[in-house]
């Protein structure tokens, strides 16, 4: 494990759990929803990357908003710190305790409340797993406006709390646009009902936005209302190779113009990312053999006219081959081939995990500068560790990962603060879509001004004066004084 508690000190103002607390929770939730069993706690204390590990002695599984409210009211009065947890797929150490915080996991709140076929508005509980919502909507002829590799485990409440971006943001925009309302329980147990289903509502401040991307630091999201697009009949996926990064950028510009309204994803990976996937994931093969290319792109189009859309994409690919922007390419002939292309792109995080230790950076950087950072990092690291780059090129979002067999402070010192300083120099974001969590709570000033962060701290104090909600995360500890 990477060091965790080493980064911060336990706030002594927080109480320690006692037998009376357990009895109280058993009283409201029932014994089986009060988890003290070592094995389950071990899983809930450990993040997806197995990099961050807490030592919580208790996980609570509420089944309703009312139960979440009772839990928080009690924890607030006792000054017991808590960590809201969804699918625990977060990548910044935000979803697991740092010390002995009580884990409140939303997985038992997984009901779909309503779906309106005319408007496409879905209302559901926060613990619904993204893949289950995708399957439910598929039956109704709709899709979720977001999709990500962690869909099998992540929950919509977790997606909203991290403002997850993912593979479809290019087309459907961020959750700040598609989430129409939500219900959240505040630190003192009060229930904030802003579960609207309106597209337009300008009555005062739009408070739902505070909870989108606040990583469980301002309240626990319990219900969600989200606008879902109709499922269109023609989806095409192409897997392409480019000789250099400049061609990738030019292809993106072209794709936006020539594919226009049907473009639904524009993802990239470099050759190191491809090598890693081929090496570590079973059954994955490079669709563009035999030579190794420097860059690969996955382009998806989604539209309503099967023959037109396909023709459009084919013409685009042909032109790009002729003018040399792509050196090779293949268009998926069926849904299985399309899934195999997506598997390459979505499988990269898993392949990195199998390769050993991984230092993950999730950056927004102007597209034309993006790969310069990767090359500079390669130069800094030499043979000590591998850089692996991929991401949502269409959104200006680079995932720069450094992979080595083991964690090593010398490698870390080569990466940080260099990567943050570089990003800040180009006014980029040190967290494009994963959030700050524990990993980057102290780095926020690379992307936000002091005044902005102070206002954030005031909002945190207003909503959670005893700072029981996900302590040590998101904002620097020095700005907040608890209990
Ligand atoms: P968790 O990991 O459990 O929690 C994440 C944060 O949200 C924590 O701070 C937690 O305290 C808080 N939280 C969770 N539920 C609630 C709630 N109901 N109320 C309040 N706070 C809550 N992210 C992207 O943006 N784009 C991607 O493409 C993407 N791909 C991924 C692929 C893989 C393979 C993996 C492992 C992760 C990926 N992620 C991606 C990161 C992660 O999946 C997302 O951040 C996801 O949205 C987290 O959801 P979760 O339910 O697992 O939340
Ligand atoms: C992705 O786009 O694959 C995710 O954000 C996960 C990651 O960055 O590794
Ligand atoms: Zn991503």
UniProtKB/TrEMBL annotation:
Its EC number is 1.1.99.39. GO terms for cellular component: mitochondrion. Its cofactor is FAD. Residues 52-231 form the FAD-binding PCMH-type domain. It catalyses: (R)-2-hydroxyglutarate + A = 2-oxoglutarate + AH2. Keywords: FAD, Flavoprotein, Oxidoreductase. This is D-2-hydroxyglutarate dehydrogenase. It comes from Quillaja saponaria (Soap bark tree). The chain holds residues 90 to 572 of 572 of the full protein.
């Amino acid at each position: 494990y990477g060091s965790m508690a080493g980064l911060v000190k336990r706030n002594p103002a927080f109480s320690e759990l006692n037998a009376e607390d357990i009895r109280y929770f058993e009283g409201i939730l029932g014994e089986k929803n009060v988890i003290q069993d070592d094995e389950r706690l071990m899983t809930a204390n450990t993040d997806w990357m197995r990099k961050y590990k807490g030592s919580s002695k208790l996980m609570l599984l509420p089944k309703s908003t009312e139960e979440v409210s009772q839990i928080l009211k009690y924890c607030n009065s006792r000054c017991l710190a808590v960590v809201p947890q969804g699918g625990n797929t977060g990548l910044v150490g935000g979803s697991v305790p740092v010390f002995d915080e009580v884990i409140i996991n939303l997985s038992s709140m997984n009901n779909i409340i309503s779906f309106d076929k005319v408007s496409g508005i879905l209302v559901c509980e926060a613990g619904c797993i993204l893949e289950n919502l995708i399957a439910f909507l598929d039956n109704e002829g709709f899709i979720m406006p977001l999709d990500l590799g962690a869909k099998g485990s992540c929950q919509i409440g977790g997606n909203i709390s991290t403002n997850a971006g993912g593979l479809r943001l290019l087309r459907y925009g961020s959750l700040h646009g598609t989430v129409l309302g939500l219900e959240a329980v505040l630190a003192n147990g009060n229930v904030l009902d802003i579960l609207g289903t309106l597209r337009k509502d300008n009555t005062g401040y739009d408070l739902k936005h505070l909870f989108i991307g606040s990583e469980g630091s301002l309240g626990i999201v319990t219900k969600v209302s989200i606008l879902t697009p109709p499922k269109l009949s023609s989806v095409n996926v192409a897997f392409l190779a480019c000789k250099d990064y400049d061609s990738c950028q030019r292809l993106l510009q072209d794709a936006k113009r020539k594919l226009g309204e049907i473009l639904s994803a524009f993802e990239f990976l470099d050759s190191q990312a491809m090598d890693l996937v081929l090496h570590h994931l079973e059954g994955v093969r490079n669709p563009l053999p035999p030579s190794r290319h420097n860059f690969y792109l996955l382009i998806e189009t989604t539209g309503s006219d099967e023959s037109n859309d396909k023709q459009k994409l084919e013409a685009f690919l042909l032109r790009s081959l002729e003018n040399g922007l792509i050196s090779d390419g293949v268009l998926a002939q069926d849904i299985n081939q399309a899934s195999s292309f997506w598997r390459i792109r979505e499988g990269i995080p898993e392949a990195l995990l199998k390769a050993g230790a991984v230092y993950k950076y999730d950056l927004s950087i102007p597209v034309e500068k993006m790969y310069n950072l990767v090359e500079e990092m390669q130069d800094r690291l030499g043979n000590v560790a591998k850089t692996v780059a991929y991401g949502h090129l269409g959104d200006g979002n680079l995932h720069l990962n450094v992979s080595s067999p083991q964690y090593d402070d010398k490698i870390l010192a080569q990466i940080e603060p260099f990567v943050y300083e570089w990003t800040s120099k180009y006014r980029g974001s040190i967290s494009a879509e994963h959030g700050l969590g524990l990993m980057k709570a102290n780095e926020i000033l690379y992307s936000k001004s002091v005044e902005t962060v102070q206002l954030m701290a005031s909002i945190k104090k207003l909503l959670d004066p005893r700072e029981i909600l996900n302590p040590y995360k998101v904002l620097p500890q020095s700005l907040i004084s608890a209990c």
